[in-house]
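INFO batch 0412 | record 1 of 1 | parsing
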Amino acid sequence: MDFHSCLFEIQTRYDALTPVEKRIADYIALYGEEVIHMTVRQLAKCTGTASSAVLRCCKSLGFSGFPALKISLSADISKNMQLNYSPYISAQDAPSSILDKVFSANVKTLHDTAERIDRAAVTRAVEAIHHARHVYIYAVGTSAALAMDFQYRLMQIGQHAFCLTDVPTMKVSTLNIEPGDAAIGISHSGRTIPTIESLQLAKAKGAVTACVTSYPNSPIVSHCDIPIAVYSDEIQYPMEAVSARIAHISVMDSIVIALSAKDYDEAVQRSKLTHEYVDTIRYGKASQ
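INFO prediction complete | emitting tokens
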């Protein structure tokens, strides 16, 4: 029996589908409520394809057949209705409607990720960082801000963490890596070449490598000892990776809190000192 999400499989495997399979997948994603009541022949007719093409598409999406795909699709639709989730934003939507859609998308992403995430991988990441002499965090673009926040939180609990978001610096930093260090790449698409190449160099130097991505079948996963994937049916914004960022932040927050729990008293003390340091910061010209 197939229990994985049909809509998520379409999203993550889409680039690997043939043009005919993409036509079928597009129809399933757009008219899912109708598809769950169709036969293979009916879906083939609606998409202008052959029944054999529909069955190949099911296989390419990881399902044993059309009935299994429909069961998964029905579960997706039911969950979307329960969470009031809509995958589309139109230019005609009012700000209030957009707010509702964005919040429901974020809730769904967190819900799906909590259900499906590889918890053993998260535990391994916590242990790798805990035992690392230094932690190197690599990211570019929209993931860079998440990497900087992750570095700051790791420093708060006593980890020697470095955040690298400039491409030349990312690669040069690997010259300093020693066996036992940890290297973590953050990439929504999992296809960010500078991040992947930095992880490859870090791994060659003996670092334990991990990544946080939204695509479990993406290239970055094959270059990591510890891949961690979030699950986001990305809403159709005029920009990318909106709700997925929420899940990335939640995963990294979970790692930091798990690390702090290993030495709770010290973590509490360091948190107090952090607040004291921030409270004593003075901006503007120093008094004469």
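INFO post-check: The chain is about 55% helix and 10% strand.
INFO record closed
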